[in-house]
Amino acid sequence: MGQEFHYAPFRVEAGKVREFALALGLRDPVYFDRKAAVDAGYRGIPAPPTFTTVIDFWNERDFYQLFAVWGLDPNDILHGEQSFEYGQDIISGDVISAKAVLTDRFDKKDKRFYQIETTYRNQDNDVVCIGRATLIERREQHGAEIAGHS
Amino acid sequence: MAQKLRDIHKKALAPIDMVRYSGASGDFNEIHTVPKVARSKGLKEPIVHGMLLMGWAADAIEEWFPERKLKKFTVRFVGMAHAGEAFVIEGMLTTGNAGELQIKDASGAGKLVGSFEMD
Which InterPro entries match (chain B) (predicted)? Predict the structure, then answer.
């Protein structure tokens, strides 16, 4: 418990926001057009609410390295719950740093649960988001009935 | 007083949409894209990324309340979703600034349940 992992600082680029928005089928022009974003009151193109996933997986000391350090096989992990608490907006051009902390780990039946709290801060050290995830490790490989998924 | 929000219908995903989301998000867990790996993990076919469903749910909130800012958003992934299934997002405003939502397939089976708070 209390294990910490620091992600590498991640620069949010407008092109990555656009790619992510397209993959989710988002249509709001603020994610694609700087002028639309500024007209809507943003400093620049904002990141969509679930963009912190991109930071987790695409920074240079990423979630896979966290899994390796904590001894988890990503293909055995299902995502049970996720919550976000939002602070300042994440805007293209921002550099986001994040610290993940293992806040709890417990076993239930043939599954092991991990609770991870990740705090994301921008270049001004403002908190932009706190993410809380419950991950489920399937210890019985062939149990097809799992209440949750990655 | 609770207020029902307009249902939002999502077209079925194709397998390539899950490949696209894997690349965009960086979540290359192969249970989402490679049938052989999914089967080796006891699944009958690849499953949709939970975070793709959460992204849709966040989009639904922005569509329902374009002028409001999301402050808190919590979801539980309650069922596995697959390519080829159409989904509906149902929502309910429970107080002036808080609501609940769920994503279901055509048979009514739940995939995601969530709650949110706005400014």
Answer: HotDog_dom_sf, MaoC-like_dom
Determine whether the interchain pair A146/B80 forms a contact, defined as Cβ–Cβ distance below 8 Å: yes
Decide if the complex's ipTM is over 0.90. yes
B32 in a domain, yes or no? no
By the 8 A CB rule, do A92 and A33 touch? no
Give the chain A residue whose CA is nearest to the CA of B68: A40
- Which of A77 and B6 is assigned the larger pLDDT? B6
Nearest-by-CA chain A residue for B27? A57
| A-interface mutation test, from B13, B33, B59, B62, most A Cβ less than 10 A away | B59
| B97 in A contact zone (CB under 8 Å) | no
B62/A57 touch (CB, cutoff 8 Å), yes or no: no
Q: Which domain holds residue B97?
A: 3-14+49-118
Closest CA to A138 of A129, A147, A125: A147
Identify the residue with better confidence: B21 or A149.
B21
Neighboring chain A residues of B59 at a CB cutoff of 8 Å: 24-26, 28, 48
Option in B51, B61, B70 nearest A79 (CB): B51
Domains of chain A by residue range: 4-138
Shortest distance between the Cα of A17 and any Cα of chain B, in A, equals 9
Domain at B60, CATH number: 3.10.129.10
Amino acid A27 reads R
DSSP secondary structure of B46-67: ----HHHHHHHHHHHHHHH-TT
Within 13 Å of residue A105, how many CA atoms lie on the same side as its CB? 9
Residue B19 in domain: no
CATH topology assigned to domain A4-138: Thiol Ester Dehydrase; Chain A (3.10.129)
The tens-digit pLDDT sequence of chain B (119 residues) is 799 999 999 999 999 999 999 999 999 999 999 999 999 989 999 999 999 999 999 999 999 999 999 999 999 999 999 999 999 999 999 999 999 999 999 999 999 999 999 99
